[in-house]
Specification:
alpha+beta, two-stranded antiparallel sheet, 232 residues, seven-stranded antiparallel β-sheet
């Protein structure tokens, strides 16, 4: 299983590597992450399918993420989540911490920096894009829940830890949503957004190399729909 995961990482390799930004203190990085997330809410909106798009000041039709109803919610961990109005399952199914999920998503990672007095996310790089890629949901992503056998078969102390694979802040916020129960071939209608600051992702700890880039200090923005969940 670990070898399978490694092959996924290698297959995700790209040549247009993001620029490495100078590292700041952990406290400063945490502050940058929070400020950049708030800036992201002011500079993006959701289209009619729930996709995140760039917002411009002259836009008189779309609402910034920051102005949506229901409003974005910030958790004590710093994670921000948005439930898109009219795009939630009814009644939906509770998402358990160890469930097998089928996830349609466009997910990118970013570095938060301060330049010219402005703090924002830069150097975006994809983690997953099933919307514009396979067109079907990803099944049982390890960054939500890693299989016990993967931990057991790992060959290094770091790789035997859940935190090596799982993006903790994503799992925390996703369980506040409900899953649909629809076939993989169904048309997508993204139900929400989760912004995970680096301290609730991999921070400066060892991590599994999902995309052949450094995730050190990187925040993640998940734009997603949970098609289905099943108990493990």
């Amino acid at each position: 299983m670990f070898l399978a995961l490694a092959s996924i990482a290698l297959s995700s390799c790209r040549t247009d590597q993001p620029v490495v930004e100078p590292e700041v203190s952990i406290e400063t990085q945490n502050s940058y992450d929070d400020q950049a997330a708030l800036n992201f809410l002011q500079t993006h909106y959701l289209d009619t399918k729930g996709n995140i798009k760039n917002y411009v000041a002259t836009d008189t039709i779309n609402k910034k993420l920051a102005d949506l109803i229901p409003a974005p919610v910030t958790l004590p961990s710093g994670v921000i989540y948005i439930k898109r109005q009219g795009a939630q399952p009814d009644p939906g199914k509770t998402i358990g911490a160890t469930d097998i999920i089928r996830l349609m998503s466009i997910t990118n990672s970013y570095i938060a920096i301060n330049a010219d007095g402005k703090t924002s996310f830069v150097s975006g790089y994809p983690l997953r894009n099933t919307v514009n890629g396979t067109g079907v949901p990803e099944v049982d992503p390890t960054y939500f829940h890693v299989k016990d056998e993967t931990l057991t078969n790992a060959t290094t102390p770091e790789a035997k830890q859940r935190s090596y694979y799982e993006i903790e802040g994503f799992g925390e916020a996703l369980q506040l949503f409900k899953s649909f129960d629809i076939p993989d071939e169904s048309n997508y209608n993204l139900q929400g957004v989760i912004i995970v600051p680096s301290r609730a992702a991999f921070a400066r700890d060892p991590y599994f190399n999902y995309s052949n880039i450094s995730y050190r200090n990187r925040s993640f923005v998940f734009n997603f729909q949970v098609y289905k969940t099943t108990a493990r």
